[in-house]
Amino acid sequence: MPPYNARGRENGAKRHRAVLIGVERYTGTRNDLPAVATNLRLIREALTAVRTGVLDPEDLVVIPDVVIPDGPVAEGPVTEGEGSPEPGARGSGGRRVGPLQVRAALNAARDEVTGLLIVYFAGHGIVRPDGSDLNLMFTDSRVTRDRRHPFVDTLSWRDDVMPDLRNARADWVVVILDCCFAGNALGAFSPAAGQNFAVLTAAEPGVEIPPGDPRTGTEFTAALHRLLTTSESEPVTFTRLVAGIRDEMAALKAIDGHPWIPDELRHGDDVVLALATDAEPRPPAPPVTPPPKASGPRLPQGLSKGPADRLPERRPRGWTRRPVLPAFARRLLPAPGRLRSRVSVLVLAGVLVLAGAGLWHVLRSTDDVACASPLQLRVLTDPDLRPTVQKAADAYPKRDSDGCRTVGIDVYDAKAADAVAAFRSSSLWQEPEACPVSGDCPQPQRDVGAQPDIWIPAAGTAWQRATAGGPGDGGTGTAGAGTADTAADAGKSVVDLERLGSVAYTPMVLGVPDTMSLAQSLQTDDPLGAIISGLEAAQPGAVEILRPDPEATEGALLATDALYAASGTQPASTLERGMAQAMRPMPSTARELMCALADGTHNTLEDQAAVLVPEQTLAQFNLSAGRPGRPTCATEALAHRVAHYPSDVPMLDLPFVRVTWDGAERDAEAREAAVRDFHDWLATDPDAQRCFTDDGFRGVGKGGPVRPGDDSVLGSEDNTSAVREQVPATGAGTDVSASLSDTLKDYREALGPGKVLYLLDNSTSMAAEQLWDGPGRAKDLVARSMSSLGAGDAYGVWLMAVPKGEAATDAVLFGPHTRATAQRSVAGAEAVAHDARVAKSLQEALGTLRSGRDEEEQPRLLVVVTDGEDFEDVGEAQRTALVAEARGEPLVRIVTVSLRNGACAQGRFGDRLASASGGRCLDPADDIAAELAAEVAKTGTGDAE
Q1: What is the mean pLDDT of residues 611-630?
Q2: pTM of the model
């Protein structure tokens, strides 16, 4: 079948369109992308070229709707709003682009186009930590710490763009993405049955790309332009374009030395995107007559009344733009035909000289200063440190004489254990190994994020574990490394970790409510075990010891190491079960732990819990209402706490580690200079140090932390009696990497073999909505989450779609399994034409998990995966009974997973089951794959193995 040709006679009467989106200007911490303006010009030229273009100029919708650089200057008022320039804005870079504006253009194209629809995007892209959910970023887009909704003012490819385009009326849809992580869109490519749809991405999944040159555009779009405008013998189809663009990019490298390989997926035959250069020229388009001016409000910039308004008409060859004077100069000019005397001419000449001088000054301040793309540094840090490190990065004042930013800094965090494991297997960052559908393999790009230039862990102990076997070794050595770390060493070393020095300090403390009795002599110089013994002796049976998840933060791991050492012969499982009974799941960070206590829903726990947290976190939560620096989640329900300083828990010394990668020679010298300058600024500049001390950290002095000043959070009235001005440095110079790795292993094994039962909705509605097979769909989610189950765990998978009155069937029999066998059984499960019997399956599953002679404290988990349709059909009487049963003993945590939005709203059935059992409710607003795996990990022992 010949490829689809929008220029073919049979398609001449159809409506074709290209929606071209370019985001050059960004607020907040994202760098501007000056090359995007050139990209828009190039892609316009390629699609509308006289001989080769498949579209006419009036077929284009360009966002922002800017003037073609070599076209006429539009006059008239500009309305404010999306797409409008700000004062002093330069070209398209000054125009805001927002998701509502883009969504409106895509929806209009979806409904109106009947022929060829092309969508092009150039700008920033961002993904979740596991690489899922590519989000296209716009001018005011930002990233938050909300794990359910981390991206604000973005468009999700998976949840917004793809669902809209899969319902397009067009004969053919072609999407071209020129952004970082563009290849991650392919994991959510889901065209409708029979739809002709193709996606071309600038690079493969997980790959970031350079920002390009403002003069020539990005390398990818510049290559597209060449290929689409220079084919001499035959048309450029999508398949030919893919082959050509890969050849064009083969010699180039993406960020961090990654091979630069554009990627694609296609559903349908083929489509022509450019004609051959020797094709017959198209007849010229008829001139566009400007419509008469009408009264009434103007449409917002970027939303045109009709195709003729979208772009100026094509000008004849050789046409040049006439200079356009500012309004004040035009008013001084006499009317045409009135230059009658020499005096008039001389007066006019003087006016033009003055006007020209003023105009030069105006244009010099806006057009001549075009900021080049700054050097971008990526900073990986500990989750406990992220807010403060982000604040410091935002304050970094590295700009040139024109006020342009010369260094941009992206800050992100990852679990401390994941970061260490990633550095120890650093080659997997650059060349990930083939990973099964289960996701059961180390993938630093998924687990941590992009390759960093800088690492700021909470303590030097993380650096010790990452370089065990010798500083800078990258983890290939094993001397001093414990079993939990070496088990993850699946790759080789391609990284050097150079420790430059500390940027701040904060000791780990045991925060004791000031209502409890404890000898003041135990505030410093005593090990953690002695402090806890004294506390429990003074309040028998009324003390709970809590700390955050030791896999997530280095501070919590150091505290756990001391806790286990202080417990003597008492097994770690006893300590962990006690904590799990008090609070489950355990929060990931110190701030999240304090917020959980502050919400007042844990009965008397907020007054009974002694918490192991960084001093700076405790000091912030001690602040009175209205004081600067007090966390927004803090409430009066949380008791004021006094810091006690265990002598056997090392100080958090926030080392600044320069990260260099083998093969990353691009801008190596400039990058090294920028990294060292940022370190020097953080460690020595008063403004930089204030970012840390304002958040309760101790500043950097000669040889260690300095005494907090009166303007520090530690020096506030609320903390006068709670913290000590001077504390001894603990754990300095000691290598505890082996002990910490063993502690991590003990923690993962602490709750023993678990019992996990999956209830999987395999009704036909799951298949009909494309929620059954494929990455991120039901079977894949279940199989991937099994990576945390070990040989000693008992688990099974039940299929709930059965004839009425029958019990769920087994996809995986409940009991111990080899993980690979269970995952293959899940992959082979099929959807059937029955409704899911949710209520009956829930009741029987709870009975199965509670049966037997297991230990009372053995962890039990019930996972329910459904599209929500049959789940919501459970009657209210049955819901009430099942929620009551979920509260029964022994405890079975219930995690409900709905693959449709809204199922976890407060009061819905899934939310009620999760709340009653201490579980979770997950829907597409969450990162389901990562969060479900984390929930299973709290029950299974696979991570410990």
Answers
A1: 91
A2: 0.59
